[in-house]
């Protein structure tokens, strides 16, 4: 998996949220949480697994809504940040964090109602294997996002420290077919790249987001989207 050592560094974990979700990055955080909540629906008493949970942005949010949730990540420092978040949110007793490999999930077949992963598949060197493992431990729903091949991200992806695996719609369709998943819904978003939003004040980013939304309403808008959210079922 791309960036495995980088994500496990203490300083990366400590600065991760601040670098990505401050300034205009707040809009990204809000939209990603909205996408997860829209796809998963009511989660009270559902057994949920988050793959690559990182600092626990989604894990804690779903625990607050009554989910029986496990957050799994390969990075100990990231998980420590997640535990601190859960403690601050008052849900430390309502969730579990585990260190583990997404390619070899330590759970039996059909163990969870929902398995989801955000900001993971752009790092996956063998995405079909990871998705198959997610399917193995789910008895119903799979949700994940991808960075898209024909988007603004492709213009600067080469310059990123680790780069990203970019996906076309056809590649995602092939992944779903290979793992026996049926696509329920898909949303395509963010014409302008994440990196731009993170570098500008939230007030300015809100204006940029307004322009972004306008472009996406055009007939070709979805084709320019840099991110897609995929909601599928077994």
Brief digest:
The chain is α/β, with parallel strands linked by helices and 234 residues long. It contains 11 helices and 8 strands. Strand 2 (68-73), helix 5 and strand 3 (95-99) form a beta-alpha-beta unit.
Indicate the radius of gyration in whole angstroms. 17 Å
What general form does the structure show?
globular
CATH top level assignment = Alpha Beta
The CA-CA distance between the termini, in Å, is 25 Å
Query: The CATH topology, please?
Result: Rossmann fold
Structural domains: how many: 1
CATH superfamily: Vaccinia Virus protein VP39
**Secondary-structure arrangement, i.e. CATH architecture:** 3-Layer(aba) Sandwich
Q: Unreliable runs, pLDDT <50, ≥5 residues?
A: none
Q: Structural class, from secondary structure content?
A: alpha/beta
Helix share bin:
40-55%
Number of helical elements: 11
Strand count, sense and barrel status of the largest sheet are: 8 strands, mixed
H-E string:
HHHEHEHEEHEHEHEHHHE
Kindly report the average pLDDT value. Answer: 92
Q: How many strand elements? A: 8
User: How large a portion of the residues is in β-strands, by DSSP E?
Assistant: 15-25%
Organism: Halovenus carboxidivorans
Keywords: Methyltransferase, Transferase
Domain Methyltransferase type: 49-137
GO biological process, one term: methylation
